[in-house]
Amino acid sequence: MSTLADITSSFRTKPSEKARAAADREVILADPGFGKHFTDHMISIDWTTERGWHDAEVRAYGPLMLDPAASVLHYAQEIFEGLKAYRHADGSIWTFRPQANAERMQRSARRLALPELPTELFVESIRQLVNADAAWVPSAPETSLYLRPFTIANESFLGVRSAQRAAYYVIASPAGPYFAKGVAPVSIWLSTEYARAAKGGTGAAKCGGNYAASLLPQKEAYDNGCAQVLFLDPLEGKYLEELGGMNVFLVKKDGTLVTPELSGSILEGVTRASIIQLSRDRGITVEERKVTAQEWRDGMASGDVVEAFACGTAAVVTPIAALKGPGFVAGDENAPAGKLTMSLRQELTDIQYGRRADPHGWMTRLV
Ligand SMILES: *Cc1c(COP(=O)(O)O)cnc(C)c1O
Q1: Residue ranges of the chain that CATH labels 3.20.10.10
Q2: How far does Cα 207 stand from its chain's mean position?
Q3: Which residues carry this modification: N6-(pyridoxal phosphate)lysine (predicted)?
């Protein structure tokens, strides 16, 4: 097996022969949307039990060749990550807390019986891709290049066991401002029938299977005029867990922030951890504890809960105006975004875009 230093320094680059012309790229970057367009290159690194991680490549973005018996297609042995590259005013390109994503991907890998990619190799893979496709990092305000690392079990074997062959990839997609018309508060649908995770299940791992389980309740949310679904704990169906792909915070009248504690079935967001840190830096009390949906509803009715927001890499911080569920609406769907919500959003994006000092050393320069 090659050493970590060998593989980290051995990326082969095979430039794409189908790279888009600058003019075509600029048309896409002028209005990229989210997750619709992909850059010219991708990363792939193979893994086997015998050889470990090997054959790290920067190659043309394009379809994968998979055996129809590949385990990922049958047993959903897949994990992923999501982070962004940000262009700063001087043209340099940075990413936010990539080590935290690498470590989370290692935890997800352990839970899904997939190989763990070392942190150095994860960060190097991001650096290699962003270097190859630097021209795809947009520069308009609040735009970024969304990076999607993922690992699949690609062994052709229908027996059920942990992977003996896997592959790690990174693809990249330019992202416009999440709120094209300015940050707009959303309504959230409380799912009382479905859970996204189980006790002892994969809720704390970032894996495709969790998302597959969230799509039907997410559709129910849309059908009820809500942007996102909120899940309750799988045991008692009482405590807030998180949205389909974002963590959740409440702001109390006395200025305290409250967020569900990590229960084992909640995904530990890097944005969540960063919001907690920035709030504590300001002297705000942050409670990580069990919160019932009833506490939120009662709090909105009594005025004890004055703001709520969701957070994650894609949308950063999204204000929540109302909580809806079967037969009830709590809050005002037309309420404006909360003050603390918006100032935390501003502080975090200022750090990410290099408009403000980075007191915790969260930013890593890529280009
Ligand atoms: C990725 C994800 C989040 C947010 O995590 P960030 O690291 O902040 O982007 C929250 N919940 C789920 C289920 C997720 O998959």
Answers
A1: 186-352
A2: 11
A3: 206
Q: Which atom of ligand 1 is nearest to the CA of 101?
A: 7
How much distance in Å is there from the Cα of 265 to the middle of ligand 1?
A: 12
DSSP state of 207: B
CATH 3.30.470.10 domain locations along the chain: 4-175
- Rounded to an integer, what distance in angstroms lies between the CA atom of residue 73 and that of residue 176? 31
Best of 247, 268, 318 for a ligand 1 pocket test (most atoms within 8 Å of beta carbon): 247
Q: How far away, in angstroms, is 247 Cα from ligand 1 center?
A: 7
Residue nearest to atom 6 of ligand 1 (CA): 269
Q: What is the pLDDT of residues 41-98, one digit of tens each?
A: 999 999 999 999 999 999 999 999 999 999 999 999 999 999 999 999 999 999 999 9
In CATH, the number for domain 186-352 is 3.20.10.10
Atom of ligand 1 nearest to the CA of 214: 13
pLDDT digit string (tens) for 124-178?
999 999 999 999 999 999 999 999 999 999 999 999 999 899 999 999 999 998 8
In a mutational test of the pocket of ligand 1, which residue from 84, 112, 246, 362 has the highest number of ligand atoms less than 8 Å from its CB?
A: 246
Is the domain covering 4-175 a CATH 3.30.470.10 domain? yes
Closest residue (by CA) to atom 5 of ligand 1?
A: 269
